[in-house]
Amino acid sequence: MAGTLNIIKAPITEELKKFEKHFKASMKSNVALLDKVTYYIVQRKGKQMRPMFVFLAAKMCGEIGDSTYNAASLTEILHTATLVHDDVVDDSMQRRGFFSINALWKNKIAVLVGDFLFARGFLMAIDNKEYQHLHILSDAVKKMSEGELLQLEKARRLDISEDLYYSIIRDKTASLLASACSLGVASVSTDPELIERGRLLGENIGMAFQIKDDLFDYGEGDIGKPKGIDIKEKKMTLPLIYALQNTNKATKRRIINIIKKDSENPVKVKEVISFVLDSGGMQYAQDVMLSYQQSAFDILDTFADNEARSSIRSLIQYVTDRKK
After folding, report:
1. Which of 289, 6, 57, 44 is nearest to 173 (CA)?
2. How far apart are CA 323 and CA 223, in angstroms?
3. Residue 129 and residue 83: Cα distance in Å, rounded?
4. How many domains does the chain have?
5. Which of 211, 225, 205 is nearest to 281 (CA)?
6. pTM of the model
7. Could you list the residue range(s) of the whole structural domain that residue 50 is in?
8. Which tens digits make up the pLDDT trace of 239-255?
9. Are 318 and 4 in contact (CB under 8 A)?
10. Residue 193 falls within a domain, yes or no?
């Protein structure tokens, strides 16, 4: 899959190299401890999917300039801040196979580093007078927080409907990809209709991305074995929601009871996974994911045809075909 990503990146290879320096410089601090932590973060970055969407969306609609580099750095800084805070909230000791910030430096430092990154990102936008960038990403961070809190609130009662689930993932996951695409367009164009189309494109990609993640819990990983992590964490994902909507009251009560009281029992978790698989929950979620993917393709086709647009199409395909 790494080879696939390299082909996708082809139209923006030089821009991504320049972005690396821009991003590192934007993370610098005069506080030695903070510099050490941010250096650790920079060295262990992921695929940088969001900056890729910023640059490709920008190149699809115009000429990349300083505003695009600022948008990409701002997106990655704020995304990193949310990940640092998420690891604290989830008490997670690992991030992408490496120790999380809170695992190495404890929660207090991790929270403060997250706070620094948020402030750094917002100040960067203000210093460059990129007020639209600031508005788009502040809205995304607000939605992400609301989505997380709504999910936590509903997890206690396990009463999430399909519509509510879509609302949660639209805010929690899709909002950041939506902002990456709309920022890319906004960095090269002032056309509000074009920027909104960019936002809708990213939102549909983000919805497909999250549903793909849901599917992994039921056996779409590297070796095809179900993980059941979402069940253990009492997260109501689309395959499970569909299965519960399409069974009798007694079975629904029994499955919900297992999730509430026995989610740490591997045998019981396996029972829930089997119930979801037998109920067609996986297939239903797969179909919904593909429908969001198709919506993204349809929106993409309304943009000018060029090399960057082709790469975005391949990136959308990558998001739904990935194995982890």
Report:
1. 289
2. 9
3. 26
4. 1
5. 211
6. 0.88
7. 2-311
8. 999 999 999 999 998 88
9. yes
10. yes
